Amino acid sequence: MLNDVLKFFESAASALQDALLWPGHQVLAAIGYYFPGAAQWLGVHNGEATTTMIFIFTLIVWFLLIVAITLLGRLIIRWARLVRAIVHTAWFRLSAAVGAFKTMLKLKLRRVMVWRKAQAFTETPVEELDDLDVAVLRSASAVGPGIAISAPELAEQFKLRPAQVQRSLDKLSNFKMLDYVIGATDGYDNFRLTDYGAAFVATWQRQQAHA
Questions:
Q1: Residue 82 falls inside a structural domain
Q2: pLDDT above 60 (res 168)
Q3: Bridge partner residues of 188 (DSSP)
Q4: 25 vs 60: CA distance, rounded Å
Q5: Which candidate, 140, 123, 130, places its Cα nearest to that of 177?
Q6: Is residue 177 in a domain?
């Protein structure tokens, strides 16, 4: 049993040695076939060489193989980095192009919405607004955002009766251009200009400037 085990390990060691020295055998055999003069100088006769010579050439072959694998690995890594850089650059440019297109689309949609709102400000209510209504809106805009106005104050300014101004205030409130404010002045409700009303005044003023 012990002899069988020893023979197995001897066979395995011999097979491993033959495998490791195989490149040296092949190189020396090729030299003997193609370069007989060099083979004779190296001591190779009929394809046979000394163990030392086989060992030396085996080391040379394995060394060159390791160098080749190392260089090939570095080349593959370099190409992989280059490909990754190209892919990242292409993805960045594509993302930038998509982002620019989205931004342009949003701006165009925003312009369309602003234009539609401006049309709503200038076309729909203006048909039902008279000079007093416009004057009330301008006065509300002049006092500043968030500042309340009332019929008595505007009536004194326009030299009208408070009831006349109150009807205009109620109309503008229905159009969402004015909003009620808590409190009262001489029994009349207080109002403030809404964003809708401010937009209308700004649009109306621009139209008057271009008229």
A1: no
A2: yes
A3: 185
A4: 12
A5: 140
A6: yes
Say what the pLDDT of residue 191 is: 92
Residue-level pLDDT at 8: 47
pLDDT tens for 48-73 read 555 666 667 677 777 877 888 888 88
> Do 172 and 119 touch, CB atoms closer than 8 A?
no
Task: Tell me the C-alpha distance between 58 and 54, whole Å.
Answer: 6
What is the structure's pLDDT at 207?
78
Do residues 149 and 184 lie in contact, with contact meaning Cβ atoms separated by under 8 Å?
no
Q: Which run of H or E residues covers position 193?
A: strand 188-193
Tell whether 64 and 131 lie within a shared domain: no
In this predicted structure, the answer to whether residue 91 has a pLDDT above a threshold of 70 is yes
Helices (H), the chain: 2-34, 36-41, 51-123, 131-143, 151-158, 162-174, 195-210
The burial of 92, by beta-carbon neighbours within 10 Å (0-12 exposed, 13-18 middle, 19 or more buried), is given as exposed
- Would you say 47 and 29 are in contact if contact means Cβ atoms under 8 Å apart? yes
The pTM of the full predicted model, rounded to 2 decimals, is 0.42
In the block, tokens 């539609």 appear at 116
Domain, as residue range, for 174: 121-210
Q: What is the C-alpha separation between 150 and 88, in angstroms, rounded?
A: 64
- The count of structural domains within the chain is 2
State how far the Cα of 57 lies from the Cα of 34, in Å rounded to an integer: 16
